[in-house]
Amino acid sequence: PSRDPERLRQIQERLLMEDSDEEEGDLCRICQMSAVAPGNLLVVPCSCTGSLQYVHQDCMRRWLEAKIKSGAELSAVLHCELCKQLLRFEVEGFDIHQLYQEHSANQAQSDFVHSGLYLVLLLHLCEQRFNDIL
Question: Which residues are in the RING-CH-type domain (predicted)?
């Protein structure tokens, strides 16, 4: 099939016009979706402006949980990575401080178990080495 450059240009222009006519409205900076569910409102958790201003409550909750599980310090979890302001984020049944403390306690317990296993392995290797010498 032959390609008509003028026809392609017209199609491109029409597509660009359609895109510019559509009003996207406010979008979540994490999932890039608009406010689709009544129970998952777009909130403004910090001083960011423009397209970074809004975030869904659920997206923000999951983002904060991921930051905590990644081992981030509490101050990094409580502040916006972009504008550095303290996050204003209150959702019923979600307590950042409690979640952070629970994760820290679980991490400490896990570290303790790993240290114990390491010591048992080290003792076993020392015992083998000692038996080889004798």
Answer: 20-90
87 by Cβ neighbours in 10 Å (0-12 / 13-18 / 19+) ranks as middle
Residues in contact with 27: Cβ distance below 8 Å, sequence separation at least 6, in sequence order: 33, 34, 51, 54
Together in a domain, 65 and 48: yes
User: Distance between CA atoms of 54 and 106, rounded to whole angstroms?
Assistant: 32
pTM: 0.57
pLDDT tens across 82-94, in order?
999 999 888 777 7
Residue 127 CB coordination number (10 Å): 10
Distance of CA 87 to the CA centre of its chain: 14
Please list, in sequence order, all residues whose beta carbon lies within 8 angstroms of the beta carbon of residue 42, skipping any fewer than 6 positions away.
26, 28, 34, 35, 54, 55, 56
Query: For residue 18, what is the enclosing H or E element?
Result: helix 5-21
Based on the fold, state whether residues 103 and 131 are members of the same structural domain: yes
